[in-house]
From TrEMBL:
Listed HAMAP family: GlcN6P_deamin
Function: Catalyzes the reversible isomerization-deamination of glucosamine 6-phosphate (GlcN6P) to form fructose 6-phosphate (Fru6P) and ammonium ion.
The reaction(s) this protein catalyses: alpha-D-glucosamine 6-phosphate + H2O = beta-D-fructose 6-phosphate + NH4(+)
Keywords annotated in UniProt: Carbohydrate metabolism, Hydrolase
Pathway(s) per entry: Amino-sugar metabolism; N-acetylneuraminate degradation; D-fructose 6-phosphate from N-acetylneuraminate: step 5/5
Keyword Ribosomal protein: no
Domain Glucosamine/galactosamine-6-phosphate isomerase: 17-229
Transmembrane portions of the chain: none
Species annotation: Paenibacillus kyungheensis
Protein name, entry field: Glucosamine-6-phosphate deaminase
Lipid biosynthesis as UniProt keyword: no
């Protein structure tokens, strides 16, 4: 059973998330972080930058692995996840960019890139994996399906996922059809998972993921099998939890 934390005030959401990440890095300066993109963790990253600027935490020895990246998008495209991470976090803290890893969506051989990413992951145990959730229960870009691939793989994005992410592009036609994502096996291997969920539109899916059946049709429900998951909810996303 996940540890579910529901916060009342929106600003506390980001502060609580940042406290969890920063405390880990303070006690384990060589921590390995699994990082996520999307709108939800932006406040967490903003708070971490603040805490870093106050001199309370250093990321100099931290390593990071991101969950996913669009296929075929230039690394410096404004909507690439590499750009997102650089702009929202890495460029503002003392992390060594060489210690940050985001799958290379521009690789000519995407399957080879997936194998390479898995090799890197196999050499590093993720201490804390930050996750968001898609409206259909996806984690990373692991979309609902009859079966799930445990390893890093190329995925064809569902239309609703492209639609949800089209806000970062000029139009939905520009959203890549495919992405590279860490698999659920790699996510489940993390020592600790912090699942961040905000907004009324996520209330039903997160309730289903935490309390409903464990099914590949809701990839986040597999997290019920992990022994150290914290689900952080804002008031709206936590509407269906007592
Ligand atoms: N690949 C990312 C996911 O990692 C993220 O969790 C999801 C939700 O994003 P948001 O937080 O913007 O709702 O968006 C994308 O699909």
């Amino acid at each position: 059973m996940a540890n579910v934390i529901k916060v009342t005030h929106e600003e506390d959401f980001h502060k609580v998330a940042a406290h969890i990440v920063a405390s880990l890095v303070q006690t384990s300066p060589r921590a390995v972080l699994g990082l996520a993109t999307g709108g939800t963790p932006v406040g967490l990253y903003r708070e971490l930058i603040q805490i870093h600027k106050q001199g309370l935490v250093s990321f100099a020895k931290v390593k990071s692995y991101n969950l996913d990246e669009y296929a075929g998008l230039p690394t410096d495209h404004p909507a690439s996840y590499r750009t997102f991470m650089n702009e929202h976090l890495f460029n503002h803290i003392d992390i060594n960019l060489e210690n940050t890893h985001v799958p290379d969506g521009q690789a000519t051989d995407l399957d080879a890139e997936c194998r390479l990413y898995d090799e890197m992951l196999s050499e590093a145990v993720i201490d804390l994996q930050v996750l968001g959730i898609g409206h259909n229960g996806h984690i990373g870009f692991n979309e609902p399906d009859d079966s799930l691939n445990p390893a890093t793989h190329v995925v064809t994005l569902l239309e609703q996922t492209r639609e949800a992410n089209s806000r970062y592009f000029d139009s939905i036609d520009e959203v890549p059809a495919q992405a590279i994502t860490m698999g659920v096996g790699s996510i489940m291997k993390a020592r600790q998972i912090l699942l961040l969920v905000r907004g009324a539109d996520k209330a039903e899916i997160i309730h289903r993921a935490v309390t409903g059946p464990i099914t590949t049709q809701c990839p986040a429900s597999l997290l019920q099998l992990h022994s150290n998951v914290t689900v952080l909810l804002d008031a709206e996303a936590g509407r269906l939890f007592q």
